[in-house]
Amino acid sequence: MPLRFDNSYSRLPSRLFSSVEPTPVDAPAWLAVNPTLGALLGLSEEELRSSEMLAVLAGNMIPRGAEPIALAYAGHQFGNFVPRLGDGRAVLLGEVLGADGARRDVQLKGSGPTPYSRGGDGRAALGPVLRELLLSEAMHALGVPTTRSLAAVLTGERVYRETALPGAVLTRVASSHLRVGTFEYVAAQRDEAALAALVSYALERHYPDHTDSEVPAIGLLEATLEAQATLVAKWLALGFVHGVMNTDNCAISGETIDYGPCAFLDAYDPARTFSSIDRGGRYAFANQPRIALWNLARLAEALAPLVGPRAQKTAELLEERLEAFQPRFDAAYAGLMRDKLGLLEQREGDLDLARRLLSIMASDRADYTLVFRRLIHSVEGDDSPIGELFASQDRLAEWLAAWRLRLQDEPTTTAERAARMRSASPAFIARNHRVEEAIAAATRGDLGPFERLRTVLARPYEDQPEHADLAAPPGEEQWKYKTFCGT
Ligand code: AMP
Ligand code: MG
Q1: 3-class state of residue 474 by DSSP
Q2: Known catalytic residues?
Q3: Ligand 1: which atom is nearest the Cα of residue 485?
């Protein structure tokens, strides 16, 4: 087996996982493979595409060195604490030491029931599997920290949701699967020794520079806060709605994880939700920083027993640490918006300038991605491409004038400015209607649209004029588009 396993999670206290093997499937067949990611894991393209690897990634063969486990975790789902969730449809094969020296979790998602399935079938349908593959790899190409997708395979079996659907297994690769919910799980069981072991494990694995903090739990909170603040700033700058920011879907590593009901905005609307179950708008686009902080507060609570014996003082200490979130988020977000506006130097009022544009976009329901991409033409003096996206021409003209004034006192070339904007504002995002189209075709056995979309999304900052149709927004009928949790 070319994969080099070293399974550190299995050496943690046993309450953190259950040993369980994937359930074999009838007739594995390839849907998609990711040779670039394979190479990072030390696999040649030939090894990745081998029949042996197909059997492994379908769950029909356990590779040498793997120690399959399902991870235990708890979580706050839409604000309500569930003390025991865990991997109900996934199995961690183990950790692979990559060609670059990095340690990565290799997990099969949709691999059959586990002790945490709670009545679920442990399986996944083709649609959600292809969706996660497309979206996670698109996020990676956009430069957003994320779990990745090594492969998708058909199982040859049906899964039963509202209808019978083709079953599939996704191979998810992550820098780890530690979540806020992992800490909540151990804290709820009042196992302080396990909690302390978990903290030092997380620090060593993700934040080795923080291992010497006087109180390790505080070091972990600070590092996770930093990672989450910068992550969510990237989501907002790109118009991404995660959709189910429960604490079990909030990774300690700061990677985007769990691509169930996520979606990119088309028409800009800060209150936009996509998930059919998010009726109160808890996970709406503009609410995401607040929710990230809420999740970090749950992490702080879980870690509190390790911080000190005096409850009052501990609470104050942690509260103080959490106050760092907003300024950290604001700085990261302002930096990204500055790049999108083509501003090189940091000035007070920049964020306000961005917000004024966003407010016109919101009232005109202008396409989020296209506005920023077309602003590049305005740097070059042509306002007609951006103008087409707005009804309020006067408000737009007024904003463009203010923006030009701000550009004026920064000496640089048009080319330099445009290049900066081109690398901050993609031409292509995974538009919902295109993702749905690709999934529908794949369900009929035609992988063409999926492969095309995937190839284009691998280079999102390049214009690729021959694929202009994939950059175009959907019609207004998509303003009510809903997503469903990817089970
Ligand atoms: P998610 O909404 O994807 O974060 O999943 C929440 C919880 O439901 C996790 O514990 C999952 O493992 C579990 N779950 C989701 N779908 C299934 C399924 N088909 N079978 C068993 N467990 C599932
Ligand atoms: Mg989840």
Answers
A1: coil
A2: 248
A3: 2
Say yes or no: CB of residue 87 within 6 Å of ligand 1. yes
Is residue 25 a contact partner of residue 59, using CB atoms and an 8 Å limit? yes
pTM over 0.85: yes
Rounded CA separation 330/16 (Å) = 35
Nearest to 247 by CA among 288, 199, 296: 296
Report the alpha-carbon distance of residue 215 to residue 231 in Å, rounded. 25
The answer to whether the CB of 150 falls within 8 A of the CB of 41 is yes
**Does ligand 1 lie within 6 Å of residue 487's CB atom?**
yes
Percent of the chain with pLDDT over 70: 99
346 strand-pairing partners? none
The maximal CA–CA distance of the chain, rounded, in angstroms, is 66
Short-list 213, 207, 151, 197, CA closest to 176? 207
CA dist 371 and 357 (Å) reads 10
- 478 ligand 1 Cβ < 6 A: no
Decide whether any atom of ligand 1 lies within 6 Å of the 122 Cβ: yes
CA-nearest residue for atom 16, ligand 1, is 487
pLDDT in tens, 253-302: 999 999 999 999 999 999 999 998 998 999 999 999 999 999 999 999 99
Q: Where are the domains of the chain?
A: 9-174, 179-431+472-487
Name the closest ligand to CA 257: 2
DSSP state letter for 189: T
Our CA dihedral for 41, 46, 51, 55, rounded to 10 degrees, sits at 10
Pairing of strands 69-71, 29-33: unpaired
Q: Which residues pair with 170 in a beta bridge?
A: 109, 152
Kindly give, in sequence order, each residue whose CB lies less than 8 Å from that of residue 95, ignoring residues fewer than 6 positions away: 5, 6, 7, 8, 9, 103, 104, 105, 106
Residue minimizing CA distance to atom 7 of ligand 1: 85
Rounded distance between C-alpha atoms, residue 218 and residue 222, angstroms: 6
